[in-house]
Amino acid sequence: MTISSSTNRVSRRRFLAGSATIAAAAAARRGWAGAPDAEAESRQYVLHFARPAATWPDALPVGNGRLGAMVFGNPAMDRVQLNEESIWDGERRDRNNPKAAEAVSKIRELLFAGKIAEAEALATTDMLSIPRRMPCYQTLGDLRLDFSASGLTPDAKVEDYRLELNLDTAIAKTSFRHSGTTYVREVFSSAPDQVIVARMTANGPGKIGFAARMDRPAHFSTSSDGQDRLVLAGAAIPVNDNPGLPVKENPVGIRFHSELLALATGGTVTSDSGVLTVADATAVTLLIDCATCYRFPAGDDAMRAAVDRNLKAASVRPYGELKARHVADHQRFFRRAEIRLGEDANAGVPTDQRVQHIKDGGEDVGLLPIYFQFGRYMLISSSRPGTLAANLQGIWNDSVDPPWGSKYTVNINTEMNYWLAERANLADCHLPQFDLQDATRGPGSITAKKYYGARGMVVHHNTDIWGDSSPIDALGGGIWAMGGAWLSTHAWDHYEYGGDLGFLRERTYPLLRENALFLLDYLTEAPEGTPYAGKLVTGPSCSPENKYKLADGKAFNLCMGPTMDLSITRAVLTRLVRASELLGGPAEDQELVARAKAAIPRLPAFRVTHDGRLQEWPEDYADYEPGHRHISHLFGLYPDDQITLRGTPELAKAARMTLDKRLAAGGGSTGWSRSWIINCMARLEDGDAAYENVLELFRQSTRHNLFDVCGLKENSPYQIDGNLGGPSGLIEMLLQSHAGVVRLLPALPKAWPHGSFRGLRARGGLEIDLEWTACKATGATLRASQDVDVRLAAPARQKVASVRTGRTRVTLAQAADGTVSAALKRGAMYEVSFG
User: Fold this and answer.
1) How far apart are CA 63 and CA 395, in angstroms?
2) How far is CA 668 from the centre of its chain?
3) CA torsion, ordered 113, 117, 121, 124, to nearest 10 deg
4) Distance (Å, rounded) from C-alpha 386 to C-alpha 45?
5) Cα four-point dihedral sign 148, 154, 160, 163
């Protein structure tokens, strides 16, 4: 197909001139509400392209948390790839290794004795799950649309082609002209109506004709149901239980039933033998839904009835009403926050060209607010209250055997998926992650008892929709018992940002309690002659997913007391104690809290290596892979605040040395790894270094449609974590709230001299707007959702001059470190001025 488009002929000269304009533009502070041109406001955050998506990772995502689709926008032979969040292969099963209980104590003895090879051999046979493979997330399938009946053959000439994704309306749109007719197609996934909607129109009567089919890579059947429906049904059958083995007999997996309903204006609709045909229509609306036995365990009839209810309910609404309901629902999340870095002079340039410009060594500051909103859009679209948590790919996956199973990897990836939630004013999108944690409590308590003879709960480095908790895969990631503990700190974050004591009591405290119970039983005293003699350490464990090297050149994973474990343990126990104090000390947990208080000072302190880096393992080992993608031992710097510039300057210096050496050796080799580095650099208040890593995130690990990739190659697999971790880093550059201080513009790079943000959140129930010019804050607004005493740190070389609410000036307490303290009242709005 020949595609002609004026937007595809943008000169490089105009692009570079636009980039220069961005850097000098003054910040615009127009709000969403009451904007003079609502359409212009809505089009600020649009990805657009002058050609269709060539491959699945280039397509554009839509989602309502449960149902997802990838839009390709091919005029002649179009494809809409479909997903439903609960289509997982396998089943709930006990995969705990029966030999583990006896093996753990022996492995600890071997590690303490320095017999690491023997310890790892025993762990491989006696600790890893049986089978090692965990269930994975699978695609629902594809809707394929053949428009040759409209004269749109693969060799047809198409003019004024445009494919776009409007992040503000959550609608993917394709438009073009062919033989004098303008065609428009819109696709969105509606949360209010719980269907995927595809709308096709033409500017002349009877111009739309196509044949529609539905399929998937394996284990499905298609059929017609009446003259206007297609049915795609099947099951997510496991590929195998171990690599290289055939599918087991009598395989199990989530069954699903999906349907497409076609509604046409003019023309005819017929369906026969799994092919739906539309002829001579002026407009067509397709509605798609899917139900699974995960949600409807009663059986196939219940699934069919659920789909039929949604399709019938949606079908009685005119398309305009469906669209308006969808847009209003999406915008109640999306329009809460934004970042602006000046006017976007390159808004008319196709997004793929803008990304390529950065990959070629250029800059495009105006693209970063779109990237920030793309991350928020992805979280809204893949994680809503009542849905499952966002997995490694959110909800977008076109395979029955996706990379890493598209599971929940909880040694960084699932956590990073939610770094954005509280800060970016999407706290309610965080809730599915807490539901996931609740799902792990039952299986996790069984694994804790069977493996470690411990109370409470444990989750190793992966889990699934059934809450599986066993160690899987291999030593480098599998033998690591801190996944559930790390996740529980997110529930504490949700409390700290919102201040809801009911949530603290009902959700946060139980998760902290179960993980603290496990950790206190899991900790063991290191014997004399070992690096942490007399201290409490975790293990057997690893520093995900890294290896250390001994003097003889041999490399190993397992050890006792890696730095990340100890940091997470300290974080959980400290939060448990604080939560108990806030809740008045639950009487039944007095002994537990006392044990936590006694254990905290017995945890080993951070150490620094001979060459000035933060030590990752109990000994100052050499790195087997100096540029390893994981920076697990920097957990204390970010996301936690055990290491800070002012509180622990020597450790902060060691953390920076770690980052510099990792980067020099090729670190940041995945999108999520680079995103973690951005957040760490921001915490160290080096805005220019953080910004340089933002550029590297684009240059090495971002596709032309802004999808994050897990690698350095264009064909590396897509993962959502970098798309959510990168925008979190942008917030950390502009606003931080940790170690008891709210810091304004703590890591502002020179490349962002002018800008503003609106609706970002800080701990203590604060929502903050701020403007800056020439790298200096010119004003800020604070909205308090609770009574709070806040410590404010002004940007570098500035001070807080006043804080006012209405005409009342708030009394400020000045501290020696330059911060000011103020008592804010719930529901009030405060204006901050700077000197």
Assistant:
1) 8
2) 17
3) 90
4) 27
5) positive
What is the value of pTM for the model shown?
Answer: 0.95
Q: Among 191, 635, 197, which residue's Cα sits nearest to residue 428?
A: 191
Euclidean distance between CA atoms 786 and 263, whole angstroms = 49
Q: Report which residue type is found at 599.
A: A
| Cα 820 from Cα 831, distance rounded (Å) | 14
258 contacts 300 by C-beta, under 8 angstroms: no
Q: Is 75 helix (H, G, I), strand (E, B) or coil?
A: coil
3-state secondary structure of 453: coil
Say how many C-beta atoms besides its own lie within 10 A of residue 183's C-beta: 22
Residue count (the chain): 835
**Inter-residue contact 656 to 684 (CB < 8 Å):** yes
Cβ contacts of 277 within 8 Å, gap of 6 or more: 149, 209, 210, 211, 212, 268, 269, 270, 271
Bond into 131 cis (ω within 30): yes
The residues that bridge with 524 in the sheet, in sequence order, are 537
HSE value, Cβ hemisphere, 13 Å, CA-based, for 2: 7
260 with 287: CB under 8 angstroms? yes
Place of tokens 């509180």: 647
Give residues with Cβ within 8 angstroms of 87, minimum separation 6: 137, 138, 139, 140, 236, 254, 256, 290, 292
504 Rama sector, left if φ>0, alpha if ψ -120 to 50, beta otherwise = alpha
Among 646, 657, 678, 728, smallest CA distance to 378 is for: 728
- For the record, the structure tokens of 673 come out as 């790894």
Lookup result for tokens 């594809």: 142
Q: Is the peptide bond before 545 cis (omega within 30 degrees of 0)?
A: yes
The mean pLDDT values, 10 residues at a time, for the chain of 835 residues are 55 40 35 51 91 97 98 98 96 95 98 98 97 94 97 95 98 97 98 98 97 96 96 90 50 92 98 97 98 95 98 98 98 98 96 98 98 98 98 98 96 98 98 98 98 98 98 95 98 98 98 98 98 98 97 97 98 98 92 98 98 98 96 98 98 98 96 98 98 98 96 86 98 98 98 98 98 98 97 97 96 95 98 97
Q: How far apart are CA 71 and CA 200, in angstroms?
A: 13
What DSSP assignment string belongs to 799-811?
-EEEEEETTEEPP
For the CA atoms of 753, 754, 756, 760, the dihedral, rounded to the nearest 10 degrees, stands at: -10
Q: Read off the amino acid at residue 657.
A: M
Rounded CA Rg of the chain = 27
DSSP 8-state symbol, 392: T
Burial call 373-391: b when 16+ CB within 10 Å, e when fewer:
bbbbbbbbbbbbeebbbbb
Give dist(CA 390, CA 61) in Å, integer: 14
DSSP letter (8 states) at residue 512: H
Task: Please give the structure tokens belonging to residue 200.
Answer: 């096709």
Instruction: Work out whether the CA dihedral 428, 432, 435, 437 comes out positive or negative.
Output: negative
The residue assigned the tokens 């849905």 is 387
Q: How many alpha carbons fall within 13 Å on the CB side of residue 352?
A: 19
- For the four alpha carbons of 722, 724, 725 and 730, in that order, the dihedral sign comes to positive
Q: Is 393 helix (H, G, I), strand (E, B) or coil?
A: coil
SS3 (DSSP) at 148: helix
78 backbone φψ class: left, alpha, beta (φ>0; ψ -120 to 50): beta
Residue 82 contacts residue 64 (beta carbons within 8 Å)? no
Q: Are strands 755-762 and 800-805 parallel, antiparallel or unpaired?
A: unpaired
Of residues 50, 47, 72, the one with CA closest to residue 59: 72
